Amino acid sequence: MVSSATSLTGNGLRDWLYQRVSALVLAVYTLFIMGFIMTRSMDYAAWVGLFHHTGVKIFSVLAALSLLVHAWVGVWTILTDYIKMASLRLSLEIVVILALLFYFIWAIIIVWSV
Amino acid sequence: MSEALRTVSFKIYRFNPEVDLKPFMKEYQLSIPKDKDMMLLEAIMRIKALDDTLAFRRSCREGVCGSDGMNINGRNGLACITLLSALKEPIEIRPLPGLPVIRDLIVDMSAFYAQYEKVKPYLINKDPVPAKERLQSPADRKKLDGLYECILCACCSTSCPSFWWNPEKFIGPAGLLQAYRFIVDSRDTAKSERLEALSDPFSVFRCRGVMNCVDVCPKGLNPTRAIGQIRSELLAEGG
Ligand code: SF4
Ligand code: SF4
Ligand code: FES
Description:
The structure holds two protein chains of two kinds. By secondary structure, chain A is mostly helical. Chain A has a single domain, classed as Fumarate reductase/succinate dehydrogenase, transmembrane subunit (3 helical TM bundles of succinate and fumarate reductases), CATH 1.20.1300.10. Chain A contains four helices and no strands. The longest helix of chain A is centred in the middle third of the chain and has 29 residues, at 54-82. Chain A is elongated. Chain A starts with 11 loop residues before the first helix and ends with a helix. Chain B is α+β, with helices and mostly antiparallel strands. Chain B folds into two domains: 5-107, Beta-grasp domain (Ubiquitin-like (UB roll)), CATH 3.10.20.30; 110-238, Fumarate Reductase Iron-sulfur Protein, Chain B, domain 2 (Orthogonal Bundle), CATH 1.10.1060.10. Chain B is built from eight helices and seven strands; from the N terminus they run ββαβββββααααααα. Chain B has helices at residues 40-50, 110-118, 138-142, 161-165, 172-183, 191-197, 212-216, 223-236; strands spanning 5-14, 24-33, 69-72, 75-78, 91-94, 101-103, 106-107. The longest helix of chain B has 14 residues, at 223-236. Classes of the chains: A mainly alpha, B alpha+beta. Chains A and B meet through helix 1 and helix 3 of A and helix 8 of B. The structure holds iron/sulfur cluster (2 copies) and FE2/S2 (inorganic) cluster (FES). The site of FE2/S2 (inorganic) cluster has 12 residues of chain B, from loops.
């Protein structure tokens, strides 16, 4: 058993499942948004109208959360593959986590301000 | 009467840490009978007869012992079962990648064996020892096919990028193939403990499905499939 405090869940299977489930959410969300863009005449009113639905808001936040989870598992894997110096790796991990959390909170604020 | 000869050219990785500052590729020309094919190992042994400073491992010379794994024209394989005629010249031979070189084509396999040891590659059975032997049905025995044949040549693990980057944390394809060989054995009672020991984010899950391991295994085994089966077992156990 290899311990790894910085991984998302500390458990290989859970990390792996979270990454797959979040990928699914992102895929469905992307298709949903692309479908909307391609079937509607795109203007400001249509766009605002879409995000007025509470369901769309929740879906958007869920997609942002999935992005956070998905990116963290992926970036953590890349960093533990390639950055061997522990102090540098930890610093990079902190930067990435803070950035991801910042974007996530920002996304919530944007979606709920509509 | 002189035989018709042809020349085969080689470039072989050389490094003797006692005298060389850094590794270099040395060129060799070997004359062999024109109408004769041979295994690469035979050719390397003939080269050693010309230059006895060349160091490499070999034993069985028939693909059974797993000691002459090396990187042949960029691909890991066993020299003793690789036909010379199948190789493009100059034939470039290097040690297995990702492990420290002791000398020339000889690598330090400690990291590889340490991972093998981690999976407890032996039967664990808490039940009382029967009078004769632990029986296994033919169907259960069949589940070990494609797993037990591994000769631990390390061709797979040393071609796996995940093993290169994390040789102390990722078990690697060879070790995982053996892990599954004991997980699936009906005579073993330690399945849950074995799975538990593999559940962290590195041991199994560092496999990214690159499938280099499957591509190079000289015994035609499929570590990626075994890794997928371990994943399914972990999933069935509920993570
Ligand atoms: S799985 Fe194949 S390549 Fe890997 S160590 Fe065993 S025999 Fe060699
Ligand atoms: S499939 Fe997995 S174990 Fe095999 S080479 Fe790829 S990453 Fe390594
Ligand atoms: S010498 Fe034994 S496998 Fe090649």
